[in-house]
């Protein structure tokens, strides 16, 4: 039963991102196709199958194009602030955004290496991400060379705490940042050795 439970949870973790992506794309496709199919049929006099998928693709590319320029980023920032003020919407929008941000390129660039440190007490280990070397006032006021280690919470790796740990007390791991995030989000169910 233990192995069955592990396989079931691993299956959910593997299928969930794919299912959400397919559902969102299907929803956008149906929305665009539903809005434009009657308009296209009225203009041309006959339906044009596949146009909804083509327009969905073009719409996603257009959103990406707008999001990469200054005006688009300001507009998206405005929408973020708006959605985080609406009571029920902010819960769903905020959670989804945090999960997506956890796997974004910026997060991977910020998380340099996966490591374990003894925390919250000696003999107990926490997995974390080294985000930088000690510098400036922080390093000047510590006797030993420290590194910034972000210790994320499970299952939401976007919240956690920052520890300044002496470099010699950090055990660096060989796993990738992606594997470290999978390990944390899954609560230890998914890890590099059982993939």
In short:
This protein has 195 residues and is α+β, with helices and mostly antiparallel strands. It has seven helices and five strands, in the order H-H-H-H-H-E-E-H-E-E-E-H.
User: What is the strand arrangement across the widest sheet?
Assistant: 4-3-2-1-5
Helices, by number, come to: 7
Number of domains: 2
Q: What is the molecular shape?
A: elongated
Termini separation comes to: 19 Å
Helix share, percent: 55-70%
The biggest beta sheet is recorded as: 5 strands, antiparallel
The residue ranges in which pLDDT falls below 50 over 5 or more consecutive positions are: none
In total, the number of strands is: 5
Relative strand content: 15-25%
* Estimated radius of gyration: 22 Å
Mean pLDDT: 80
Descriptors:
2 domains; 7 helices; five-stranded antiparallel β-sheet; 195 residues; SH3 type barrels
Question: How would you describe the overall organization of this protein?
Answer:
The chain is of the alpha+beta class and 195 residues long. It has two domains: 2-105, no CATH class; 107-194, Roll (SH3 type barrels), CATH 2.30.30. The chain is 56% helix and 16% strand. It has seven helices and five strands. A five-stranded antiparallel beta sheet has the order 4-3-2-1-5, with helices on one face. Strand 3 and strand 4 (160-166) form a beta hairpin. Helix 1 (2-44) packs across helix 2 (51-67).
């Amino acid at each position: 039963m233990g192995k069955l439970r592990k396989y079931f949870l691993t299956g959910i973790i593997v299928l969930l991102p794919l299912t959400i992506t397919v559902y969102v794309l299907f929803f956008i496709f149906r929305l665009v196709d539903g809005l434009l199919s009657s308009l296209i049929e009225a203009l041309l006099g006959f339906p044009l199958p596949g146009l909804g998928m083509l327009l969905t693709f073009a719409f996603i590319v257009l959103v990406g194009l707008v999001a990469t320029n200054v005006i688009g980023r300001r507009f998206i920032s405005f929408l973020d602030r708006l959605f985080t003020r609406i009571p029920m919407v902010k819960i769903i929008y905020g959670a989804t955004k945090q999960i997506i941000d956890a796997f974004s390129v910026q997060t991977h660039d910020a998380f340099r290496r996966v490591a374990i440190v003894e925390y919250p007490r000696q003999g107990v280990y926490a997995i974390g991400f080294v985000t930088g070397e000690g510098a400036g006032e922080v390093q000047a006021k510590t006797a030993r060379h420290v590194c910034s280690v972000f210790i994320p919470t499970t299952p939401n790796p976007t919240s956690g705490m920052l520890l300044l740990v002496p470099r010699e007390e950090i055990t660096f791991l060989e796993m990738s940042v992606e594997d470290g995030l999978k390990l944390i989000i899954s609560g230890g169910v998914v890890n590099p050795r059982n993939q």
